[in-house]
Amino acid sequence: MKGVLGGALLAGLLVAVGATGIPAAVLAAVVPTLFDVEKVRLTPRQEYILADLVGHKDALDGTLSTDQLYDRLPPETQAEVSRLDFAEFLDACRRAGLADYGPDGTVTLKPSDKARFRITWR
Description:
- Helices cover about 55% and strands about 10% of the residues.
- It is mostly helical.
- It has 2 domains: about 1-35, no CATH class; about 45-115, Arc Repressor Mutant, subunit A (Orthogonal Bundle), CATH 1.10.10.10.
- The two termini are about 20 Å apart.
């Protein structure tokens, strides 16, 4: 499935740039080495943490660091989620297209209905 999806993606790109003479077999062999196609979904626990955070406007505008986001969690959630677990949660959000990291270390979260497709280069 990954090869087919990747081949279709790369074929579309090659058609767009005018390179249509590459055989499909070559595309199917090369594309899986360039792209990693993975569907990432948050667990119910992670969805709950995300819902706690997206209620804060500043969690969505990209001005908070990881530690500042953790501090926005309700005390009962902080008691159940360590900072290390929270870092793993943010990584899962990034892989699911629900979080972006800024160059200054800030994190921008998105509500779960605003997830984006993310391409990861190998």
